[in-house]
User: Fold this.
Amino acid sequence: MAQDLLHQDEIKEAVRRAYSAIPTGGGEAVVRKLYSDQELDGLPPGAIAWALGVGNPVRHAGLKLGEAVLDLGSGGGIDTILAAWTVGPSGRAIGVDVLEEMGERARTHAEEAGVSGWTEFLRGEMEAIPLPDETVDVVISNGVINLSARKSRALAEVHRVLKPGGRLCAADLVVDEDLPPEVLTSDSAWAG
Assistant:
């Protein structure tokens, strides 16, 4: 068996542990900074409470009626639900999250939002998206790609599942200078 020199498995487990342990998401205070009143109107309270993103990729993704959209790291489902409202019943909204607990929450929120008929949530990792090649028109992601220890692998997977001419719209955190070793080796820094 190959040795994991970059400690990718440890990073994955640290992120998984951190997100499994949180009691709720950012809630209304964070969501009000990222989404308009119109976007929030009709969203289930649980989807708002469990929002953990850093931006609003749905607003900038240029989604169209009938498209298939993948929400990478869907969490409690807020962006998947917004995408489902936009693509409508002739489209498809798919959320993928590493935690089954998040998928269960998101399924409940999608049901409450009235989009469960064309929305699904899958358990999976962004480095191994559980979809066939060329499945979706658009991939959105909100504060998730930065959590990957293998960002190039995650982006390769995004490319694999996009149909020809498909697009990616991601809101994320970026570091543009070297971090000190104590941050690079910190589980909480990776998960945060």
